[in-house]
């Protein structure tokens, strides 16, 4: 069942699009009312980005900020209803402005609506990003927008 699930398809396609630096393809998987949440966001960083257009704006410059080299899925579990799941994955990349490694470990809760991603609750380590960008201020400036 998982081999052809919508959650697996979304995760696979979104990660592949980020490796291609194709943010538009990544955004295409979002529902118009999608919500991107960051429960562990540091002060000054958005905790919530609401709506496909705002999510597109938030992600627009990602390829110029971080060169993403690899994603590895550790675990992927779909809920019984088939409209959500949990994914754990790692990311390897380099922050363009500093040349520092960006090696992040993510756990995300995903929900879908009408075949699109409606919720992405992103549990990640902001300290990894702050270190890679060189400071909390540089990291916050790189990803402005959303609600604190």
Automatic annotation (TrEMBL):
Name the UniProt record assigns to this protein: Nuclear transport factor 2 family protein
Top-level taxonomic group: Bacteria
Stretches that traverse the bilayer: none
Residue intervals of the SnoaL-like domain: 14-118
Organism, as annotated: Exilibacterium tricleocarpae
Pfam families with a match to the protein in the record: SnoaL_2
Taxonomic lineage of the native organism: Bacteria, Pseudomonadati, Pseudomonadota, Gammaproteobacteria, Cellvibrionales
CDD domains hit by this protein: NTF2_like (cd00531)
